[in-house]
Automatic annotation (TrEMBL):
Superkingdom of the organism of origin: Bacteria
Protein name: ABC transporter permease
Family, similarity comment: Belongs to the binding-protein-dependent transport system permease family.
Main location: membrane
Annotated compartments: Cell membrane
Native source species: Streptomyces hesseae
Chain ranges of the ABC transmembrane type-1 domain: 68-258
Matches recorded under Pfam families: BPD_transp_1
Annotated membrane topology: Multi-pass membrane protein
Gene3D superfamilies: MetI-like
Length: 275
């Protein structure tokens, strides 16, 4: 118990620091994304530049904070959109059953048969590089698991006595779904949204790393890792290490918070919610 409490506190502290940084730093220190200082390129970490500089002399600490802000924006917005779509689809499938259930679940199976990254690349390729095509790409590929989880929860709730009582009292199927079933699945849907944010961050970083996400001049963690490949081969490790840490550490912290939420929802059976 003490170990889990310690891990939860560390995760909460990390996420608080991350949110504070991405909100405050851009207000205090603006970033010129087109600025170049070749006289300061690839400086190692030091007092003037705690994370060093990149291949064109830009401060890595500042760019990592701005890149993390973009990743969190993509992750949170995409997770919310995917959760709303997945919750609606899963609730309709579980509540209506029959042909609607079969149709929606076959649609989920169809999307699931295509690898997430490949489907995301297809969606992004339809638009010009930018943040909103990336959000759409992540949302399209991540609502499927939420739909399955919500459908299973709705099917479980339909067997409860109070649902039978509502139906016997003359409540319509729509009223039962909105008043009784949806409130019952919201905790699971919220947990799915929190678990989805790290997936969305990695998805955005992967697309940017492949050159299909944000424009190359924009501060994005995936763009930074991609542009640092040549520097890493030359022995300059910091342009790759610090953007990578800015991807890994927040996602681990979010996973820790989601794990605590999952345990609180179902303390007896700590089964994994796979997304």
């Amino acid at each position: 118990m003490a170990r889990r409490t310690w891990a939860l506190r560390v995760s909460a502290a990390v996420m608080a620091a991350v949110v504070l940084a991405v909100l405050v730093v851009p207000l205090v220190v603006p970033l010129d994304e087109q600025a170049v200082d070749l006289g300061a390129k690839l400086l190692p970490p030091g007092p003037a530049h705690p994370f060093g500089t990149d291949e064109v002399g830009r401060d890595l600490l500042l760019r990592c904070v701005y890149g993390l802000r973009v990743s969190l924006l993509v992750g949170v917005v995409a997770a919310l959109v995917a959760t709303v779509v997945g919750t609606a689809a899963g609730a309709l499938a579980g509540a209506l059953g029959g042909r609607t259930d079969r149709l929606l679940m076959r649609l989920v199976d169809l999307f699931s048969s295509v690898p997430h990254l490949l489907l995301g690349i297809f969606v992004v390729a339809l638009f010009r590089p930018g943040i909103w095509p990336v959000v759409a790409s992540v949302a399209v590929t991540h609502w499927l698991s939420t739909a399955r989880v919500v459908r299973a929860e709705v099917l479980s709730l339909r067997t409860r006595p109070y649902i039978d009582a509502a139906v016997s009292g003359g409540a319509s199927r729509w009223r039962v779904t909105v008043r009784h079933l949806l409130p019952g699945v919201l905790p699971q849907a919220g947990l799915a949204a929190v678990l989805m944010v790290p997936h969305a961050i990695w998805h955005e970083s992967a697309l940017s790393f492949l050159g299909l996400g944000l424009p190359t001049h924009r501060a994005s963690l995936g763009n930074m890792v991609d542009s640092a490949r040549g520097s890493l081969l030359a022995g300059d490790w910091w342009p790759t290490l610090f953007p990578g840490l800015f991807i890994i550490v927040p996602t681990l912290a979010l996973a820790g918070l989601a794990g605590a939420w999952r345990t609180r929802l179902n303390p007896r059976h700590r089964s994994e919610l796979t997304l």
